[in-house]
Amino acid sequence: MSELSKRAAPEAGRLGRIIDKGGYVFAAGIVLAACILLLEVFLRYVFNSPTLWAHETTTFLCGLSFLYGGLFSVSRNSHIRVVLIYDAIGPRAKRWLNVAISILSLIASGFFAFACWIMVTKSYWTPTGAFRMETSGSAWNPPTPALVKGFLFLILIAMAIQFLILAINYLRAPADRALETDA
């Protein structure tokens, strides 16, 4: 694995480095979810005393981690691309393709954030305007659906900003740098 694939892409800027470091928190969330599941198995099968909260908590932690993973891959420039075309073009064309991909992804992230905002307003406020977070409806009934939707909204905003930073930095970089930053 190259040194470049172990950290944020240089074009991702300061935000990319912050996002990259934040990945450790969400990786710890997956480890915590695994520990909770292990505890749940132990409590259920050894003491015949399952919890009400384990399944929803692990689903919540893993869901947040997966959402953050999309932002994390953007900061590392490790998103999916059609390399058959990308690898066949020269550095100058790659630079412009990186700019175009970043701008299109910025637009898509913005549209998704707008759509997500509609979901967030419905999950945080009643039709009368009173604040009430949407809950899961289970016996434990935590507000995890509202929290996940709010987190998704924030991730999409951060992703749009990250794509803007990438587009600007790809435009500012010399054409021959395109080869150095490919994931």
From TrEMBL:
Residue intervals of the Tripartite ATP-independent periplasmic transporters DctQ component domain: 34-161
GO cellular component, one term: plasma membrane
Residue ranges crossing the lipid bilayer per the database entry: 24-47, 53-75, 96-120, 150-171
Function as written in the Swiss-Prot or TrEMBL entry: Part of the tripartite ATP-independent periplasmic (TRAP) transport system.
Principal location: membrane
Protein name according to UniProt: TRAP transporter small permease protein
Record's keyword terms, sorted: Cell inner membrane, Cell membrane, Membrane, Transmembrane, Transmembrane helix, Transport
Transmembrane is among the record's keywords: yes
Domain of life (superkingdom): Bacteria
Pfam families on file: DctQ (PF04290)
Family indicated by similarity: Belongs to the TRAP transporter small permease family.
Annotated compartments: Cell inner membrane
GO molecular function: transmembrane transporter activity
Membrane topology, as annotated: Multi-pass membrane protein
Organism annotation: Pseudosulfitobacter pseudonitzschiae
Subunit comment: The complex comprises the extracytoplasmic solute receptor protein and the two transmembrane proteins.
